[in-house]
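URGENT: need a sanity check before tomorrow's submission.

F., can you look over the Winged helix-turn-helix domain-containing protein record below? I want to be sure the sequence and structure line up before it goes out.
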Amino acid sequence: MKLLVVEDDVTTGAYIARGLREEGHVVDLFEDGREALIAATSGSYDVLIVDRMLPQVDGLTLVKTLRGAGNTTPVLFLTAMGSVEDRIGGLNAGGDDYLVKPFAFGELSARVAALSRRPQALEQETLLRAADLEMNLITRKVTRAGQELDLLPREFALLEHLLRRKGRVQTRTMLLESVWDLSFDPMTNVVETHISRLRAKVDRPFERELIRTVRGAGYRIDA
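Structure tokens as predicted:
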């Protein structure tokens, strides 16, 4: 995942960033709330990890500003402010989760993973595109290079999930939870089977392949 961490304590920030990078994530680390806000606004992140007490722009203001601009990236507040009122304030500001310092890195990692799997309040788009592929969410019509594609309901849902997260790898677990509403692995090849069927309709008749397999990670649809 691509993560943004904003933490003004240099030692704590370095510790968090190092641990997350060791797990294979891409981490952008900031000590200043204003710089983090600019990055979060212009960049594409899977999860934001935000301290509340920050220089320039505090954590609550940062998140409120993002939510006001329509940014729905999941936010985990990581802070020493741990009273009930503090937690309520963080969640009301637009935070999705709240972890109080001192913390165990294992719990931080688990909470970040859980947030990345949580269905987000995605923008109410009506038209999704990738290259010459187009999906109209109102008419439920999918075309590629002007040719209409006949998709089954589950295939449509799977393609919609990938298009909404265009360019981002989606793991098997993410797809099971979002498309099949399963919070457990059924130990079947249901995802692989539907990806194969979707490729037969979306990619095989055309020159360019849009649905990619990222070995050992999952799937993504290219722009």
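My own read: The chain has a mean pLDDT of 90. The longest helix spans residues 10-22. If you see anything odd, call me.
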